Amino acid sequence: MHYKIFGKTGLRVSELCLGTMTFGEDWGWGADKDGSRQMLHHFLDAGGNFIDTANFYTQGNSERILGELTAGIRNELVIATKYSLMTNPKDINTGGNQRKNMTLALEASLKRLNTDYVDVFWVHIWDKRTPIEETLYGLKQLVDAGKALHIGISDAPAWVIAKANTLAEHRYMPRFQAMQMEYSLVERNIEREHLPLAAEDGMSLLAWSPLGGGLLTGKYTNGHADDKRLKEGHSRFSERNLAITEKLVALAAALGQSPSVLALSWLRGKHNVIPIVGARKPEQLLDNLKCLEFDLPAAAMQELDELSKIPYGFPMDFINSKGVQEMIYGKFDIR
């Protein structure tokens, strides 16, 4: 396991983050406490220290199980949780990013996690009805109180994140040190705006669903066309994404690795990107962790980049065109 600096904080985190959305059986498909314990120990044995959960996951049971399993080693870990999603459909203020939900959600999360602070407190999703200034002021109070050391934001437009960090800088408030976005070989849309923003602003980027909802494991190819999600036309299971997966499976076989290892290794090769690995079964997590022992050859990296590339659209395709670049810089060689 290698380690990375989280945003601009100096905090050292493992290059993989353990996602615990599968801790708990409340949603009908997760792991029980024993399976969760095995997965946590596999991750720790591999050198991992960065763990991600949320108050919404398995009705709070994910946090509760994690709190029990990390008793005695909590301070050795970097634990992150989230708030935003409604936890009580009968109470309108248990959803959204306003201060009331934020404060009550974190207090409840700390009790379930059996700790008095979290290392990272994430805004789980952008709430367009709550001004970002209000969210930042509330987060500042929690950071000042020592209940959250750092803050991050998930599933938000790039312009919202840029605005928030600019406001934070000029109003002496904590800034978002990281963003959490869906990113994989079959979902590269964040390369248009979010990845450049993260690089420019010194933010870490945590990639959720790095295996494309299971598609990039290869389990939906070779005779699995009758899968329910394929029949329902789930957007992840488009002809394009299935074609990418089939070529990934073939390349993995040629390199003697599983498709999951290749997909995760491709993300590990991206600057300051931290894949969130999660699994329903311990053996699945063990396979994912094999990516730590495999560096994707440059030729394979380039092949996967080309295979899954997306058009950036206007204005970037226009700005980067040869004619426009020559109009800006002439024919001088500027590096």
Report a brief summary of the structure.
This protein is an alpha/beta fold and 335 residues long.
Characterise the protein shown here.
With about 325 residues, this protein is α/β, with parallel strands linked by helices. The protein has a single domain (about 5-215, about 260-295), classed as Alpha-Beta Barrel (TIM Barrel). Helix content is about 40%, strand content about 15%. It contains 13 helices and ten strands. It has helices spanning about 35-45, 60-70, 100-115, 130-145, 160-170, 195-200, 230, 240-255, 260-270, 280-290, 300-310, 315-320, 320-330; strands spanning about 5, 10-15, 15-20, 50, 80-85, 120-125, 150-155, 175-180, 205-210, 275. An eight-stranded parallel beta barrel has the order 3-4-5-6-7-8-9-10, surrounded by six helices. A hairpin with a 6-residue loop joins strand 1 and strand 2 (about 10-15). Helix 1 packs parallel to helix 10. The model has no long low-confidence stretch (mean pLDDT about 95).
